[in-house]
Amino acid sequence: MTLLRAALAALALVLAVPAIALGSDRFVVRDVPVSQAGVVQARQAQEEFNLVGLHWKGPGTVSFRTASPDGAWSGWHDAAPEVEDKPDSDSAEASAGRGWKLGSPYWTGPAVTIQYRFEGRVTRLRAYFVWSDPHAPTALLPGPTVARATQPTIVRRSQWGADESIVRAHPYYASAVRFAVVHHTAGTNSYSASDSAAIVRGIERYHVLANGWNDIGYNFLVDKYGQVFEGRGGGIMKNVVGAHAEGFNTGSTGVAVLGNYESQKISAAARAALVELLAWRLDVAHVNPLGRLTWTSGGNPQYPAGTKVRLRTVSGHRDTGPTSCPGGTLYAQLPGIAADVASSGLPKLYNPVVTGSLGGAVRFAATLTEELPWTVTIRDAADAMVATGSGTGSAVDWTWDASAFPYGDFTYSIDAGPDLRPAGGKVPGPPPLEVTSLTASPHAVTPNGDGLGEATSVSFSLSTRASVAVEVLNASSQVVRTLAGSFSYSSGRASFTWSGRNSSGHLVRDGRYRIRLTATSPGQRTRKSHGVVVDRTLGHLDVAPTPFSPDGDGRLDSSAIGFSLARDAGVQVRIMDGERTVATVHPLGTLAAGPASLPWGGRNRDGAVADGRYRALVEATTSLGTRVLSVPLVIDTRDPVVRIDSAGHRKDGRTAVRLWLSEPATVRLRYGSPELTGLREIQRQAGYFGLTLPRATRVRAQAEDAAANIGPRVTARVGR
Q1: DSSP helix, strand, coil percent of the chain (3-state; round to 5)
Q2: pTM higher than 0.90
């Protein structure tokens, strides 16, 4: 059975952060000693509070209860009923709370004492106490009155007393709002209308000062009296990214109803306010409240990052993560709420979509909730009308031929009468002209006639079609070659080569150069450069002989590594097996310009190098960098083996011989009757092979491979 442990929050104990006075409000943080067993008697707190939130470490869970000034105890409350009310896990905002389990802010009403109960192991506990003055004045401003979906009366941040001094960062924005997530705060339902602003202030302070978030997590809050509060700052009509549904904050608006609605319905006033708020905010976003969409999770315990999740436009928090929020009763009410949202403030315009871009065909489409005359208007930067299209029906669909306007700043509006909120925005321009992935391979051009590195391939990518000029500049920024004066390239990858020659066709001097690429499209121009080196220091690398057989028999016992230097250089020559150095033929040191030949007898400091395939690697370093060349090299000291498998006379009197060879080699055959006067030499690969000889009674064979290794002789009598 799990041991339940209770521990008192003794406010006079260790201070994690001093008490912060915020006008008439207070914020106090205490680290609570964690008792390993038993119950610590409750003590009266030094400071009165009316909102509390808990953080803890360990796999266990925490619950708490509080006592009012008159000594009456509340029931026990789960410290984290809405554990996934969080910023997106990949955001900087989420980093402050990592390592701790974050409890929810709970409105307790006036309280002076708190007890904790642990189930499972809890290693650390930190309590955050807020006194949020319920008597602070709150001003309400009426919203505008229009026929379209009406903005409700919203208690703005300045009116409910938001503390802008504690906000940690500027808001950031999504490209659009696509859906709403409805929450409950899971706190008490016993609060007065004058308490609501204090509860919102307390939640702000807990989210920012305790959790370390940038601002209050919700975009809007609604109380049971029908009051609507602005949540996170940044603009009530802007697509502010909140911290209310981990993995689903971007592209959503989060609305929290104050209280716990697991088993209790929200009040009629709260429901009406929620409907009015969502009708207005989703109309601003031009989203169908009865729609469905597939959204990609940014990551949470239930939906890992990248998971496709099917959502309703008006979803509950439990649809996006592992939580019971917004409570079973409120969740069951959401389909009816969405239907009322959809029927409020008609007519409406949904899902405006613009496809195409300036310089071509631009299509405008949208859906209207009823058949109406509609107009699409295009205006330029001076607000002059450039084009217009119109029609009648519930589907807006018009295409503007923008081929005469390849660039510029243009806006559009879709209107369908004074009772409908118009849609509008910027007409997409051509994709921004960008040159990316500019590379030159190889980086060093070595035009010395040895067939290696004689030219470099320059590649780049364009984001859109453009006219491209390509020039080669020397270290003094003088143009030595124009590779392309003004050549038209489509979007995508393109490439060209430079062989180290100037405009006159002559090879340029060794040195550092720059490939400069200038791309131009209507209204746009960009330039990128990439460095290259022309360096003929090292060339004409050769190894001879290879293979060779350093076995001391006087035949091909060593090999010579030859190369040429165009100038004095620091040279190192090594024999490599993959990336491993087998032998150093020439340690790093200066060699003079001219031809060089370095012998190697197949040995290193440990003795003979084993048979195998290697690389002779030459590195030559000057002020222009290090040039590297390598060629294959083979050591072979094994004697080839030839075997006469069969020898016999054919009907025509000639001799048929079948042989087997252990490796590629030259086979010398002597034959005769009985003297071996006949001679034939043939080259064969490893394996079985056959041949025909003049009539003979004896055949002798011997093999010699390319490394001058000579195998044993074998003789066979020819059968009948």
Answers
A1: 10, 45, 45
A2: no
